[in-house]
Amino acid sequence: MHILIIGAAGMVGRKLTERLAKDGALAGKKITKATLHDVIEPTAPAGAPFAVTTLASDFSAPGEAEKLVAGKPDFIFHLAAIVSGEAEQDFDKGYRINLTGSWNLFEAIRQLNMQSGGAYKPRVVFTSSIAVFGAPFPDKIYDEFATTPLTSYGTQKAVGELLLADYTRKGFFDGVGIRLPTICVRPGKPNKAASGFFSNIIREPLAGQEAVLPVSEDVRHWHASPRSAVGFLIHAAEIDGDKVGPRRNLSMPGLSCTVGEQIEALRRVAGDAVVARIKREPDPAIIKIVSGWARDLDPSRALALGFKAETSFDEIIRVHIEDELGGKIA
Q1: CA–CA separation, 29 vs 37, rounded Å?
Q2: Where is the NAD-dependent epimerase/dehydratase domain positioned along the sequence (predicted)?
């Protein structure tokens, strides 16, 4: 059993790698090898019960995708992406990585499938985003809602979803796309995602630092924890493709809440002194991007297929305290 993780140095990629190393198996089979790839070399998990190879390159460059799949991995987790804010600021880079890179990967798999007479058909798990949806929204975005993104990032992910579904329909691989909620609370340093403040206003105050809130407290959004994100990926790898059906992209479960409700959850879990570390500094650029994002979803298909997430923001905060802070608040 060979696992390939593209984007393994990112936060979700690291946590997925650690989970696989802990479990030692996927879909009921023992893992014998894992290849971890990113633009910077990923760190191999300590004590992994299988062989680990780490690689660093730009997977969108000509010939790189072919190198990554040459070993015919049984499961491919495609997590690599230029995040929302950066994709909006750097148009060329966003399309090169998020679209061209994904297409190169899918094509490399297709070529191996054809060379093997159809015998090589890996499960490909593609991380998409709720950014594929664009306003105006219904009260809840249902499974059949149109994908009409209002950002370059959302457009790139929507095209990736279409490619995944078509390559799966043609039998080149067995793909499942998962539209991730905004993952909160993200550990580590802030990245260039426009959604980063959702984590910042929880993570920094819990660590004894000030955080900047660039939007109003009535902004509503869709969230799940890093722990849930890893669970989504594992379940997407193991799920029966026949049960998924021809619509291969699924909106993941999550929790809809306002920024104000986030802050009140933080107050309940950690107290007034922690909440007082949040500073209000409106940012028109962030406000404009966020105004076109999904606020609430009805992920009925994913729930029926067994995907699970938190049901309260208090729970999301406690997951962060338990997983990242050793159970302690500064």
Answers
A1: 22
A2: 3-213
Burial of 321 (0-12, 13-18, 19+ CB in 10 A): middle
2-180+225-251: CATH class: alpha beta
pLDDT tens digits, 130-163: 999 998 999 999 998 999 999 999 999 999 999 9
Q: How far is CA 35 from the centre of its chain?
A: 19
Q: What are phi and psi of 273, to 5 degrees?
A: -65, -35
SS3 per residue for 30-57: ECCEEEEEECCCCCCCCCCCCEEEEEEC
- Kindly list the domain boundaries of the chain, sorted by start residue: 2-180+225-251
* AA letter at 295: R
φ and ψ at 250, to 5 degrees? -125, 135
Distance between CA atoms of 146 and 322, rounded to whole angstroms? 37
Cα–Cα distance, 253 to 306 (Å, whole number): 10
Residues of the chain with pLDDT under 50: none
Tell me if residue 120 is catalytic.
Answer: no
Catalytic-labelled residue, pool 95, 120, 142, 153: 153
